[in-house]
Amino acid sequence: MPATMSPARPPAPSAAPSQATHSVTALTQMPVYGAIACDLFCAVIDNFGDIGVCWRLARQLTSEHGWQVRIFVDDLHAFKKLCPALEVERSRQAVSGIVIEHWREPAHVGDTLEVADVVIEAFGCELPHVYVAAMARRERAPVWLNLEYLSAEDWVADFHLRQSPHPRYPLTKTFFFPGLGAGTGGVLKERHLDAARAAFEASQQMREAWWRHATGQPAPHPDATVISLFVYENPAVDSLLEQWRDSPTPIELLVPEGRISGAIAHFFGLPAFPAGSHAERGSLRAHALAFTDQPGYDALLWASHLNFVRGEDSFVRAQWAARPFVWHIYPQADDAHLPKLDAALAHYAAPLPAAARAALARFWHAWNGVGQPDWADFQHHRAAFEQRAVDWGQELAALGDLAGNLAEFAKSQLK
Ligand code: TRH
């Protein structure tokens, strides 16, 4: 048993039974179907996807499964961008019933050492050695999961839930793989998400309010194609902006402030394109948006007809938005990302008619450095892409959502 344990976690969320406590002594005695305590470790490599996925998972485990979650995260500034309530100078705080510890150094485990029932190591980040040693001393070993990055490749199903014994301690780590196909852990999807989207889509008033709030302007004319652009720097962007400028119908471009903003500014001959800016050339009108919290980002996807997304979490959100999307995959050395792009296309695009499938692949490839994007070609197949987006959302939902799949697996191990 670990030497010192603290009972000092903030109160459990309302869904959690009140007998829950976080001392290891108490945890070993409490029924496993009580409030499961979970520690989630997240090292931010870059951008927002690492913490974006962890924060979403933590909120779901808390609000939908009644778990008591504590996140260790090493970059509170990145976290604050998508969780504005966070106070970056605090080393420990609670937001939405979730305890957030600033993981200040690799050895840091909080002020006092506590080990949870379920320990999630996100994306292979290394747990503090002292914490692993305490896991091994715990009367009942915690369920130890390594949450991996999302990939649509076929091998993922073979590796999902594979176990790896620790070389020194009597501990076993299980690899939990998100995926787009059967036999994987699926992807995150909140229970309320479809209803929230349906409400947004059904309410002209909500959409008007969104436009006013996000852009400071009224919703555009219904003839306009609304496009959101959340992407990395991209050499193909100028060509696409030119095609949108020359489009026969109006294009309204919504650009969250970030890595592409410089290129947008350059295209419009502006020094910068900060949130609140607007620019116009030909048929193209662009609006720079402030970075919002995660629910705010979903609303942006719903307000658009087509979404350009990137990385991991926005890629998933675009699928739940049930609109056509273009994926700027996170680039890796030696083009290792390209097979992943094709694997996602294989799932997503397979049932499309051959010409539409080829057009989608051409456009996604061009957006990821192979060829030039052809907007007219993409537009030509828009109706097929729209139908496919709706069907795909339903197919993907059949895998179950990742938080639910993970919770179920963890509970089966705690029995
Ligand atoms: O930010 P990303 O590029 O993140 C990542 C990381 O780079 C990571 O290291 C890498 O491994 C991974 O990609 C593949 O893209 P992603 O994953 O889409 O994360 C962005 C998050 O930001 C997502 O949770 C949505 C959120 N977001 C908001 O909350 N508000 C916003 O206004 C916007 C634009 C995004």
UniProtKB/TrEMBL annotation:
The keyword Ion transport does not apply. Pfam families: EarP. This is Protein-arginine rhamnosyltransferase. InterPro entries: EarP (IPR016633). Transmembrane segments: none annotated. It comes from the Bacteria. GO terms for molecular function: protein-arginine rhamnosyltransferase activity. Belongs to the glycosyltransferase 104 family. Keywords: Glycosyltransferase, Transferase. Protein-arginine rhamnosyltransferase that catalyzes the transfer of a single rhamnose to elongation factor P (EF-P) on 'Lys-32', a modification required for EF-P-dependent rescue of polyproline stalled ribosomes. It catalyses: dTDP-beta-L-rhamnose + L-arginyl-[protein] = N(omega)-(alpha-L-rhamnosyl)-L-arginyl-[protein] + dTDP + H(+). The keyword Nucleus does not apply.
